[in-house]
Every structure is written in C-alpha cells, then in structure tokens.
Write a structure and sequence with these properties.
Elements (H helix, E strand, L loop, with lengths): L9 H11 L1 H18 L34 H34 L4 H11 L6 H11 L4 H28 L2 H8 L4 H37 L11 H9 L8 H31 L2
Length: 283
C-alpha cells in the first residue's frame, strides 16, 4: 500500500515561507517590534519632552538619534510616531477591506446593479489619494478620522475590482459548478468556496494599501495637515529637520525618513511573500 502523504501543518508552511522569504521575515519582525515598542516599550525620554540646552545634538550615547531644534530626543519621537502613523494606516486599510470585500462580492454578479457599483466607485479613483486626503482633512478642520476616510475611499474600489475579477474567474471553475450542482446555498458558496480561494490576493492588497497609506500620512504631516503638534509623526519630523540638512544637521530628518522607508519596504516584502505563497497554492 502506498504511503499516504500528509498535508503540512500551518506552522510548517509558515516556517518554510519564512525561510524562502527572509526579506518578508525581517520586515514582519521589524513591524512587530516597532508596534510593540511604540505601544508598550519604555522610551529613553518622553516624546513631548524638550530641553533647549541640548538642542541639535548629533547622535551620541545619551541621545542615540540626536536631538531636534527644541532638544527633543529624535529616537523617542521616531518610535512614538509609529503609534499614530501605523494606527491610522492600519485603520484605513481595515475600513477599505471591510467595505470593499462585500462590494466586490456584490459587483461580481452579472446584473446591471453590479455595473453601477463599479462605475460609482471608479469615480473615487479619479482623484489622487494625497489630494483627496488633503482636501477632506483641511475641510474637516484637521480631524484625524478624515485621514482614515480618505484612505478608505481611495482603496475601496481597488478591493472591489480585485475581488470582482477573482470571483468572476472562480465562478467558471469546475469545483464551483460541482458545488452549485450539489445544491450549495449562496452563503455556502461564498464562505466555503469563494473567500478561502481569494484571501491570498486580499492580504496582498491589504499589505500594499498599508504601505501606500504610510507614505500618504507622512506626506500630509510634512505639509502640516493631519497629526498636529505636539504629537510626533514621521512627516512632521522630516519637515522640521529638512531645513537643517544644509547646515549638516542631517539626523533630525534622516531617522524618521528611514523609518518610513523601512516600513514601506517591510509591507512590500510581506506582500511579495504572500503573493508567492498564494501562487504556489494554485499550482
């Protein structure tokens, strides 16, 4: 009798994926450490503390990333800024996911209503995300929740179109025809057969959405919109330090800029790993 081949456990699959994609592994570890440290970890100094006698100090043993123009510790402010910037980026992606997936399922039908949904949501993508977010936040009186709204409005059509195309292709597959012939109800078709086969591409889009949202949030803060002082944000820190680059005080803007770069690279690496794993599962 031939030996039965057991399917690998989820832990084994996760471990194999981690070994095959070291960039995604390092990125995931970086994001987890950054989030936990910004929420729970002790900081060398308060992010709101200032010391005029210690302003613009270069990186040293006391202030690892140096100090800014007010004497604030750049390291503490860079870590603390992740708490707000990543929270807003995750919230915007989560709202877009929760709304976009049901709309994508509704738009995957072949009726006229689905085409109307597609055309209506495509209108939001006619506006660049940064301009849309800038307008909404400014008109709302610099309310942070409008940043989440702007990110959601721009990304809901992306989820919807992605899910619609995936579902339309899956509806023509043999296992869907077999499930339908066996009398499977619509909820069972959706939750048992459709969604488990599209979660990979949804997670890829979510990771890319978070990365794009971080860039938008940093751009808004750089323009003076969104997160207001004294709450630290990467964009405002880059703006405050940009004028000092010419005088050699590079650290004020460089370290928050590196934080933005590493976060974006991390989420893109995670998206690549998920996409590769999803592609392999369909082979």
């Amino acid at each position: 009798m031939a030996d039965l081949q057991l399917a690998p456990s989820r832990a084994a699959v996760l471990w194999r994926t981690a070994k095959e994609h070291p960039g995604a592994t390092l990125g995931g570890v970086f994001i987890v450490v950054l989030v936990l440290w910004s929420l729970l970890g002790p900081l060398p100094y308060s992010s709101a503390a200032t010391d005029g006698s210690a302003s613009r100090q270069s990186p040293n043993g006391t202030h690892w990333f140096g100090t800014d123009g007010t004497g604030g510790d750049v390291f503490s402010r860079t870590i603390d800024a992740a708490r707000v910037d990543l929270s807003l980026a995750l919230a915007g992606a989560a709202v877009a996911l929760v709304i976009g997936v049901p709309l994508g399922l509704a738009a995957s039908t072949k009726g006229r209503g689905s085409q109307r949904i597609v055309r209506a949501l495509d209108a939001f993508q006619a506006f660049p995300l940064l301009i849309l977010a800038l307008a909404l936040v400014t008109l709302s009186g610099n309310k942070l929740y409008m940043v989440v709204v702007a990110i959601s409005l721009q990304n809901i059509p992306r989820y919807m179109r992605l899910l619609r195309s995936e579902v339309l292709s899956l509806r023509e597959s043999r296992f869907m025809e077999a499930a339908t012939a066996m009398g499977a109800t619509t909820p069972r078709l959706i939750f048992k057969h459709l969604l488990p086969n599209v979660w990979g591409v949804i997670l890829v889009q979510t990771s890319l959405t978070i990365a794009n949202s971080i860039v938008v949030l940093s751009s808004l803060s750089f323009l003076g919109v969104g997160v207001s002082a004294p709450t630290p944000s990467w964009g405002s820190m880059i703006r405050d330090g940009a004028g000092n680059m010419s005088s050699g005080e590079w650290w004020i803007a460089a370290f928050p800029g590196v934080a933005v770069l590493l976060c974006v690279l991390a989420f893109n690496q995670i998206a690549d790993a998920i996409g590769d794993r999803t592609a392999r599962s369909y082979r």
